[in-house]
Structures are given as C-alpha cells and as structure tokens.
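Changelog entry: the aldehyde dehydrogenase (NAD(+)) record was regenerated in this release. Current contents:
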Amino acid sequence: MVREFVEHKELFIGGRWEAPSGNDVIEVVSPSSGEIVGRVPHASREDVDRSVTLARRAFDSGPWPRLPLEERLVVLERFAAALQTRIPQLAAVISSENGSAITWALASQAGAPATVCGLAVQTARAFAFEVRRAGLRNEVIVRYEPVGVVAAVVPWNAPAFVSMNKLAPALAAGCAVVLKPSPETPLDAYILAEIAEEVGLPEGVLSVLPADREVSEYLVAHPGIDKVSFTGSVGAGKRIMEVAAANLTRVTLELGGKSAAIILDDADLDHAVSTIGAASWALNNGQACVALTRVLAPRSRYDEIARRLTEAAKAAVVGDPEDPKTQVGPLVSRRQQQRVLDYIRIGREEGATLLTGGGVPEGLEQGCYVRPTVFGDVDNSMRIAQEEIFGPVVCLIPYDDEEDAIRIANDSDYGLSGAVFTANSAHGIEVARRIRTGTLTVNGFATEPTAPFGGFKNSGIGRELGEEGLRSFLEAKSISIAG
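Regenerated structure tokens:
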C-alpha cells in the first residue's frame, strides 16, 4: 500500500512555527514497507535553548500559570475536543510511523489521548489546590503550585497517548512544556502542535522538538528545566536520572515491564487465553511495556493452556497494519526486529520449547515482521523470562501451587503490570495484593485512566494518570499563619 508522504520543514517553538537552527532532518520509515513516509527537522541544542528560554519566560512571568484554573481547563477542553475530531488522521499517521494495526490505532493510539485529556480536566477541576489545616502551633495553608518548566520525553510505541499523559496534567497544573518525541515517530507530535496553536496556548507554553538521544540528554540536563517526565527503557531512565541529578531536577520515570499473567487452576481458560493474546502479541505488536509476556500456568492444566495459547498465536492475523483485518503488524524498525529475533534464538539456546512462531512470516520479508511466538517449558531464570523483549513473544512458565506462582511473579527486576485469572474474583484480589507491581487486573487486562499508573522496582519512579499524575507536576507549599 502506498502511503501519503508527510513533510514538515519547521519546528514548533514556544507556540510559533520557526525554521530550525540546523539543517539535519529525520526521515520516518514505514516498518511495513520500508519506504520513507515522512520527514521533519532534527532539533538542535540551539533549538532546545530557544524553547527553554521561551518556556521559562512563559512560566516565570507569563499568563498561563497565573490564569484562574477554570480558564486553563477551558483551553484543555478545547484541546480534547480537537483531538476527538483528529482521531482518524492521528491513527493513520501513527500506524504508518510505528506499524500499529489500524483497528488498535483507532481505539487506543488515537482514541485514548482525547480521553486522557478530558479526564485530566475533570481531575484538576476536583482537586483542592489550596487547603487550610489546623496545625500544632498555627493554622496552615497548604498550596499546590506548578512545578515549572517540564521536559516531556516520549517513546515511539504509543507516542500520542504517552504525550497526553504528560501534557494534559502538566498544562492543567500551569506548567510550560518542551515535548521531545522519538525520532522514529515524530509525525503525530506535529498534530498535537497544530492543535495547541488552534486552541490558543499562550506563547512559550509548548514546544515540540523531534531529536535523537544526544539532544534529549542536552534537554534533560538543561538548567532551565524543573521537571523531567520520561517514558522509555530502563537504561535510558537510569541515564536521565543521573543527568538530572546534577541540577536536582525532579523526575518521573515510566520504564519497562515483564508482566506476569497468573492463571489459577479454576480459571476460565477461553477467557484467559483470549485476554492474554490481546494483551501480548496483539497489544501494539507486542511492543508495550504493560504486555503480559510471562504466562504462569498450573502444572495440572499446563498442557491444555499450552495448546490453547499456541492455537491462539497461530490464528493471529499478521499483515499490513492499515488492513482492518490485521491483528499483528510489523515491529517499529529493523533494529527492533533483529533484537526480537535474537531473543528467540536465545530462548531456544536456553532450552525453552518453541511451541509456535520464531521467525519472519512468509511473504512479509520486506517489512519488520516477527510471527507471534510462544515458548513453553520456560524457567523463570532464563533471559527470555527476565529481560524485556518488546515484541510478540510470550513465555509459558509452569508452577506447582499458588505460593509458587506468587514467588515466580515477584521474581523479576520489573513490576509494572500483571493479571490474575480465577473463577473467584475475591480470591483473585487477594493474590493481586501480594504481587509487587504497579497495576494489576483480575480476570482481564486494562490500564484504568482514572487510576495511578507506574511501576515498582526497575519499572520506574512516580505515577501518571489520575490525581497522582496531576500531583507529579505540582510542588507543595506551606504557609503558616502566626497572627
């Protein structure tokens, strides 16, 4: 399928379209066809300096943080409404950038940002930005004020959704934001910039700077930045934390995952397996930090679960992401495809049983495709069970009893998501309480946008979404009234 070529020649700096300081460009390559589908300027350090200077001015002396809350929220409501009208365009652009199947792109990649923006408005409207408390000596006013200028660094797998997870609460709080999209997926960020211009964000409040890691690090280390909100890999998160420490810059880090789906022996297997398929290889082609990539099966039902999971993976429709019938599209790049294929080789070398998948689908060699893959007889100590593969690969791990299942689920450097499947929801909740992970679902899979989202251990620091997501862009101030 021939995709429309999209080219942008300017950067969105402080609310204005301006020529970049340099001549470097980023070419966006379709992961399904290998053709170039877009081109944007590559932001430079000078562009970062200009953007941060304008953001500082907007925050330190501009109108945005000083507007009554309701006036800011009206602007964000217009932003959410504009996002809603752009869903087909946003979905098509993201599908062309990162290979998301178009049906999933419409529902989540493009549909979720408008929802998140609207919910951020509701949360901010209900939040008590100033309260009075009776203190030990004096009455105290506790105020929550915007943290300042925010660097929002987002990944390629869910770019618009993650961008709005950061932008909406930061803007509601009164912050100014420099948004740094991934070089693999910069095109959708231009749609967000266009909407920002349409709804009338004041000068300096938002900049959008596509760039590589070097420029990202310069942005994170910039002394004009008060807060970094980052989503991406553990390695990059550690580096950001290290760089930000020099200025004591606040950080929120949403990092990787190796989430466990525990199937208890009384679970409905039809429901469990269909849910796991949707939450693993079909979830953005397996490229999701929350994906259920470790399936824990009781030995008493292991063979049946292995058969069902294998059949489901074989039945998944792999193909052109713009075809509505496609369930699994390509990985984002050749580099990512090779990474996943390398892990499949490692799994076989470690002694796991390849139940299905394991290579490139016939007839799709021109794209970055990997067949949905299921490994059986996996020991939780194997690399394929411990390291984040970020592709359509599932590890089936047997367990002896419930205590063993909980031990295996917790035996991970990660702690982001997870699920428990059982006929007894109350018991499922009890099991979920014992799993050290940031989000879990009993008998399903969902990221609830009104609840805090984030991880334990190497899965990150801080929370997004809900009231906790708003608080991450606020500083608490106490005013003691002595007389």
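The mean pLDDT is 97.
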